[in-house]
Prior knowledge:
By secondary structure, the protein is of the alpha/beta class. It folds into two domains: 6-72, CATH 2.40.240.20; 81-231, Alpha/beta knot (3-Layer(aba) Sandwich). Helices cover 31% and strands 23% of the residues. It contains six helices and eleven strands. The strands form two sheets. Strands 8-7-6-10-9-11 form a six-stranded parallel beta sheet. α2 (91-102) links the parallel β6 and β7. It is elongated. The two termini are 27 Å apart.
Amino acid sequence: MEPVDLRGSRGTVVYVADVAGDVPDVADDDLHHLRRVLRLRDGADVVLCDGAGAWRSAVLGASVRPVGPVHREAAPPHRVTVCMPVVKGDRTDWAVQKATECGVDDVQLIVTERSVVTWSADKVARNVERLDRIARAAAAQSRRAFLPAVHGPIPFADAVRLEGAALAAPGGGAVAGGVHCLIVGPEGGFSDAEVGCGLPTVTLGAHVLRVETAAVIGAAMLAAARSTTQRG
């Protein structure tokens, strides 16, 4: 019997809108990746996933042909979110990729008082689309049945209103059961006003971290806490 968990399936994961049909609509970019980048031959195992928990085995041929039943993974009990400011170079890309591998569901970009990088309005959609592609590729590599999402920048004042939010700050505690969203500050740290926003604080360790490192550690902590809750 085939495994119900996507992580135990065989073949390269490809995300499609619907896994139930006999002729799945696989994007041209994905077909190019399978054939030209991965150099898979006809008969290679593929896994079709809708990014919302449903998946099925398939085989690469003239097209991608489903060969197995549709499996459905149960959704996690809650989503976990990391909020972070945009940082220079490709460090935001790296953070999104690794946070996805850790299991985060949402990467919410934010603007803080000490943010160094801000996007002009005409670049937001294009940059978020690029980060979404990075998250999608990382999700396929780590065999996730549920796709994460990247959200464009919002003010810090809006981030603190997110459900289960806490600040990543020195001297904080461990991730408590009600913390589902961790807000990471910029290189210069949160301002006094931001620290005094009233949210609980969570420590990421004894050392000063770069923004992207803090985001990934925070993602791993939130995902691990959720897994512990599920097992319990």
